[in-house]
Q: What sequence folds into this?
């Protein structure tokens, strides 16, 4: 709860105690409302987002950088939304604007980061992982080389980093510095125009789910796979043998091998006989 909420809670309590106070000071309410909003975290985040947009508009040449906002990419199992994409010869910058306030603690390898404000401490997902998913979805949808995309995460409003952050995690002041630090030409003018046209047309689709599934399948360890039944070769005809369990009273429960073509071959063997296929 920020200061704006505290103000209105206090105003409500005052009204309950002094019911005639609000009509008397009615002319003062708009001023108090505006003053409270100016001090609130939501207002600071609102201003920070405006600064980010203005910086992209006035600090980046329109001839070299092309900003496209609110991009949606559909994958097989999700709808991925990207705040901004800046397309240039120097690469494609996938921008996520984060409005988490207070002191920020975290590093690239943690699943969750910590947000600490004056009143509480709470966890939030590592923004690098979310932005990575956005980059991979865009890479898949546009069939791009991953080396041509850059992840950018901008914290806006009243936030302060309390641990060392990667260079692509910044605030509204360092946003432009990071983008302009990339000076190597990675895309031709033709490629830039093609990407802009694809983004403008919309309807982007990613195969990110199938890619993740393939990775998961490759990562399944031998211990995680169910053990397959042993396979034996018939010593008489070479065909596959089948493991049977005897049901007769004298031999009930004992296992033995029988040829899969038993009607013609008639071969049987104890479980410790016959060779592996």
A:
């Amino acid at each position: 709860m920020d200061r704006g909420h505290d103000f209105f809670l206090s105003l409500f309590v005052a009204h309950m105690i002094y019911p005639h106070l609000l009509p008397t000071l009615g002319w003062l309410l708009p001023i108090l409302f505006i003053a409270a909003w100016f001090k609130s975290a939501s207002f600071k985040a609102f201003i920070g987002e405006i600064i980010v947009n203005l910086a992209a508009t006035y600090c980046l040449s329109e001839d070299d950088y092309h900003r496209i906002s609110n991009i949606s990419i559909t994958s097989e199992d999700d709808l991925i939304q990207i705040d901004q994409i800046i397309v240039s010869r120097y690469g494609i910058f996938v921008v996520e604007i984060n409005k988490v306030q207070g002191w920020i603690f975290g590093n690239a390898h943690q699943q969750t980061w910590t947000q600490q404000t004056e009143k509480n401490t709470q966890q939030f997902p590592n923004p690098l992982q979310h932005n990575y998913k956005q980059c991979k979805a865009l890479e898949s949808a546009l069939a791009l080389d991953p080396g041509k995309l850059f992840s950018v995460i901008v914290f806006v409003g009243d936030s302060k980093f309390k641990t060392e952050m990667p260079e692509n995690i910044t605030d509204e002041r360092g946003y432009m510095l990071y983008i302009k630090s990339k000076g190597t030409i990675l895309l031709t003018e033709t490629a830039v125009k093609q990407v802009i046209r694809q983004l403008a047309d919309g309807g982007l689709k990613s195969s990110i789910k199938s890619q993740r599934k393939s990775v998961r399948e490759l990562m399944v360890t031998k211990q995680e796979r169910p053990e397959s039944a042993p396979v034996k070769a018939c010593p008489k005809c070479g065909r596959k043998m089948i493991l049977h369990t005897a049901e007769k009273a004298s031999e009930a429960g004992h296992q033995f091998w029988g040829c899969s073509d038993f009607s013609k071959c008639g071969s049987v063997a104890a479980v410790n006989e016959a060779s592996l296929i």
Q: What stands out?
A: The chain has three domains: 3-39, 62-219, 232-276.
